[in-house]
TrEMBL record:
<feature type="binding site">
    <location>
        <position position="10"/>
    </location>
    <ligand>
        <name>Zn(2+)</name>
    </ligand>
</feature>
<dbReference type="GO" id="GO:0006146">
    <property type="term" value="P:adenine catabolic process"/>
</dbReference>
<dbReference type="InterPro" id="IPR028892">
    <property type="entry name" value="ADE"/>
</dbReference>
<comment type="similarity">
    <text>Belongs to the metallo-dependent hydrolases superfamily. Adenosine and AMP deaminases family. Adenine deaminase type 2 subfamily.</text>
</comment>
<dbReference type="InterPro" id="IPR001365">
    <property type="entry name" value="A_deaminase_dom"/>
</dbReference>
<dbReference type="GO" id="GO:0000034">
    <property type="term" value="F:adenine deaminase activity"/>
</dbReference>
<feature type="binding site">
    <location>
        <position position="12"/>
    </location>
    <ligand>
        <name>Zn(2+)</name>
    </ligand>
</feature>
<keyword id="KW-0862">Zinc</keyword>
<dbReference type="InterPro" id="IPR006650">
    <property type="entry name" value="A/AMP_deam_AS"/>
</dbReference>
<dbReference type="GO" id="GO:0005829">
    <property type="term" value="C:cytosol"/>
</dbReference>
<feature type="active site" description="Proton donor">
    <location>
        <position position="193"/>
    </location>
</feature>
<feature type="domain" description="Adenosine deaminase">
    <location>
        <begin position="5"/>
        <end position="326"/>
    </location>
</feature>
<keyword id="KW-0546">Nucleotide metabolism</keyword>
<dbReference type="GO" id="GO:0043103">
    <property type="term" value="P:hypoxanthine salvage"/>
</dbReference>
<keyword id="KW-0963">Cytoplasm</keyword>
<protein>
    <recommendedName>
        <fullName>Adenine deaminase</fullName>
        <ecNumber>3.5.4.2</ecNumber>
    </recommendedName>
</protein>
<dbReference type="Pfam" id="PF00962">
    <property type="entry name" value="A_deaminase"/>
</dbReference>
Length: 336
């Protein structure tokens, strides 16, 4: 069966650091890791909540020191995700996590951007970059970093908001989003992963986001669901992530089929694939196994991903045509 062509819209590039690459980069940079080997590291990927994951995610970033490290990490993701069927990727990175370790913006942003600049030629994937701000650090710091990114004309198309959610409502970042929007950047934010539906409302009303990352807890607020359906606000859902971080008990309990049935504009994404048990194809496979999603549901999810991407109308039409070709491909009949 040919892979389902889709866009990946919720992906933290630092969350694509596989254990093998962590060890390779550590050796290259003369860093001693606190793990015996890759299996010992992978054994620690048993998370109890978002924070337990973030602790390891930030610790492992320490192996990223040079521009080449960031480029190699990004290329490894692009190579793997091309095999998953991804045709377009909007990739988030966390500049503050690197600045806090003494890594210059030019190094981290330049390294990721270098890989993205040739992604179409190298892997057949169009790409763009999103700078995400850490909500558990001061908004003033995010604003300063945003101004630095704008001053250096960093090749970003938008901003995001991630890291520990509960206790850090979107409203704290109103000014950051106002500045970003005025600069012509797209506005995206994590909301409703662990945080309450009120955070989703704040992201819509105060940050005026173009797209929401996760948003699954919107289901606890019927009026909010109706608004998200009416406005077709894109929700980038990450099923395996939600299971690993215990936002849902098991994949069978995941609300994605219910969200689709309600007419919400949901897409399937991998979030931090090296940590959560798989890339976007693994997420689709797991969903098929758990819910028996058929060709039409899968094609809707893929079409939603292209509808929710920040791409030209021409590119969107071409990618949606690929979904229709996949839908009618004889091999696809075996999917359900
Ligand atoms: O899954 C996530 N949630 C919030 N912040 C993050 N930063 C990296 N991954 C995540
Ligand atoms: Zn995320």
């Amino acid at each position: 069966m040919p892979s389902l062509p889709c866009a990946e819209l919720h992906l933290h590039i630092e969350g694509t650091l596989e254990p093998e690459l962590i060890f390779t980069l550590a050796a290259r940079n003369g860093i001693r890791l606190p793990y015996a080997d890759t299996a010992d590291l992978a054994d620690r990927y048993a998370f109890t909540d978002l924070q337990s994951f973030l602790d390891l995610y930030y610790a492992n970033m320490d192996v990223l020191r040079t521009e080449a490290d960031f480029t190699d990490m990004t290329r490894a993701y692009l190579r793997r995700t091309a095999a998953a069927g991804v045709r377009h990727a909007e990739i988030m990175m966390d500049p503050q996590a690197h600045l806090a370790r003494g890594i210059a913006l030019e190094t981290c942003v330049g390294g990721v951007a270098a890989a993205l600049s040739t992604s179409e030629a190298d892997y057949g994937i169009s790409t763009s970059l999103i700078a995400a701000f850490l909500r558990d650090r001061p908004a003033a710091e995010a604003l300063a970093v945003l101004r630095d990114l704008l001053a250096m004309e960093a090749p970003i198309i938008g901003i995001g908001l991630d890291s520990a959610e509960v206790g850090y409502p979107p409203s704290l970042f109103a000014e950051v989003y106002d500045v970003a929007r005025a600069a012509g950047l797209k506005c995206i934010a994590h909301a409703g992963e662990e945080g309450p539906p009120g955070y989703v409302r704040e992201a819509l009303d105060i940050l005026r986001v173009d797209r929401l990352d996760h948003g699954i807890r919107c289901l606890e607020d019927e009026a909010l669901v109706q608004r998200l359906v009416a406005d077709q606000v894109p929700l980038t859902v990450c099923p395996l992530s939600n299971v690993r971080l215990r936002a849902v008990a098991t994949l069978r309990d995941h609300p994605l089929p219910a969200m689709l049935a309600r007419g919400l504009n949901v897409s399937v994404n991998s979030d931090d694939p090296a940590y959560f048990g798989g890339y976007v194809d693994d997420n689709f496979s797991a969903l098929r196994q758990s819910f028996g999603l058929g060709v039409d549901d899968l094609a809707t999810l893929a079409a939603n991903s292209f509808r929710s991407a920040f791409i030209s109308g021409e590119r969107r039409a071409a990618l949606l045509a690929e979904v229709e070709a996949w839908r009618s491909a004889p091999g696809a009949a075996g999917v359900a």
